[in-house]
């Protein structure tokens, strides 16, 4: 069997490393750019949904959100209908960094697919979506405290 997940992991770690180096000038530390992008693209998202979207536990998301808030990239605002809910929004500082992060992401996509035909890129995208969907089912299962049978 091909080690597909090992390849995906190496790609993800390499791109994450590149991003962390390039975003250092904005004082965005390890992985925080992922959270900032999702908040910019989903204004008013709640922390729990953000954690689910990025596929991390709530504690990890809470730490990243807290650092982004302390560093002035995002702000929490109370919900008009439910005082317990805190919605996340980018600040002016967060908004100003977002276009750079987006350009880096677009460039990385183009670079990663260099030499691929349009059909190959589409096929790769569709296959990776299917892999993600399979993994998400397992992630949800294990997240609820269940054990997988190997």
Describe the structure.
By secondary structure, this protein is mainly alpha-helical. It has 6 helices and 3 strands. The protein has a 3-stranded antiparallel sheet with strand order 1-3-2. The longest helix is centred in the C-terminal third of the chain and has 26 residues, at 118-143. It starts with a helix and ends in a 7-residue tail after the last helix. 15% of the residues are buried. The model has no long low-confidence stretch (mean pLDDT 93).
Classify the beta-strand content into a percent band: 5-15%
What is the residue-mean pLDDT, rounded to a whole number? Answer: 93
How would you describe the shape?
globular
Radius of gyration: 17 Å
Quick one: biggest sheet? Answer: 3 strands, antiparallel
Helix/strand structural class: mainly alpha
What level of helicity do the residues show? 55-70%
Quaternary structure state of the chains depicted:
single chain
């Amino acid at each position: 069997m091909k080690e597909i997940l090992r390849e995906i992991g190496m790609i993800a770690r390499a791109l994450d490393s590149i991003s962390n180096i390039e975003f250092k000038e904005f004082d965005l530390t390890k992985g925080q750019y992922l959270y900032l992008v999702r908040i910019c693209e989903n204004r008013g998202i709640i922390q729990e949904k953000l954690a689910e979207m990025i596929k991390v536990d709530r504690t990890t998301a809470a730490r990243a959100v807290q650092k982004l808030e302390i560093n002035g990239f995002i702000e929490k605002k109370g919900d008009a209908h439910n005082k317990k809910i805190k919605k996340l929004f980018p600040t002016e500082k967060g908004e100003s960094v977002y276009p750079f992060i987006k350009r880096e992401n677009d460039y990385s996509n183009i670079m990663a697919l260099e030499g691929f035909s349009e059909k190959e890129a589409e096929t790769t995208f569709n296959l990776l979506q299917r892999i993600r969907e399979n993994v998400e089912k397992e992630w949800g299962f294990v997240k609820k405290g269940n054990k997988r049978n190997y």
